[in-house]
Backbone:
């Protein structure tokens, strides 16, 4: 990561830190922003609350990282409620705070976390901020491997676009998520809104979750060259520096 990107993510992370108070249960999204910017900053700058906060990680990546840093973690089955989740995204729509997540393949756990969190706060660098999610943007869909080719064909027929089973590096063949499933990346078709695609995906038995986060994000801190942009759902920008 270049140093400019690192500093944008760090300044956004510093804003998110202010939402973490002693005694809280905090959800953690996955990916490089959380692993390489937010968590190191938390350890450096929030040592006073560090031993009095429990984290729920959304992937093995973040679970291992948090354990290596000496943080306290809990699993999903030990909690019924999360005070705040800190996460990032691949794209964030500036006005609606609709986010597309799942570049790191952890969106199923991230969505479950957001659904039990009082607040979902995103941190990002300005490259993630868009006015509108455009056709062609890849929407990840998590599917059990047993149905993946069946559902791939069904999606192609319904949407009229080519979709791809995600493959990765470090292993031949498909990416298998931490929950043991496959991922199909679906380009947003020209004639579909995100709401329509979300509705279609939810109507297909066997589709576990997709990477459209609508009406879930409460706030976003976006690091820009001019400072941190603070966005709140349902309101215009709170502060623009
Ligand atoms: C993982 C995610 C990540 O938040 C998203 O892919 C952004 O990752 P990064 O911080 O590496 O840019 O949704 O499922």
Residues:
């Amino acid at each position: 990561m270049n140093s400019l990107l690192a500093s944008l993510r760090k300044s956004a992370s510093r804003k998110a830190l202010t939402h973490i108070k002693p005694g809280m249960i905090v959800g953690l999204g996955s990916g490089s922003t959380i692993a390489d910017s937010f968590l190191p900053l938390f350890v450096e700058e929030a040592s006073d609350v560090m031993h009095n906060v429990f984290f729920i990680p959304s992937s093995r990546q973040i679970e291992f990282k948090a354990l290596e840093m000496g943080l306290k973690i809990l699993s999903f089955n030990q909690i019924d409620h999360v005070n705040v989740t800190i996460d990032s995204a691949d794209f964030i729509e500036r006005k609606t705070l609709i986010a597309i997540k799942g570049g790191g393949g952890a969106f199923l756990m991230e969505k479950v976390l957001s659904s039990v969190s009082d607040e979902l706060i995103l941190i990002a660098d300005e490259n993630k901020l868009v006015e509108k999610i455009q056709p062609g943007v890849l929407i990840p869909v998590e599917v059990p491997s047993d149905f993946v080719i069946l559902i791939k064909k069904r999606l192609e027929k319904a949407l009229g676009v080519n979709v791809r089973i995600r493959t990765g590096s470090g292993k031949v063949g498909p990416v298998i998520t931490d929950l043991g499933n496959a991922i199909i990346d679906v380009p947003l078709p020209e004639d579909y809104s995100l709401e329509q695609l979300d509705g279609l995906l939810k109507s297909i038995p066997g589709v576990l979750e997709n990477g459209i986060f609508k009406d879930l994000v409460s706030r976003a801190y976006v690091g820009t060259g001019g400072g941190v942009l603070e966005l709140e759902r349902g309101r215009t920008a709170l502060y623009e520096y």
User: Anything to note?
Assistant: The CA atoms of residues 64 and 120 lie 22 Å apart. The chain has two domains: 3-131+214-239, 138-210. The chain has a mean pLDDT of 96. The radius of gyration is 18 Å.
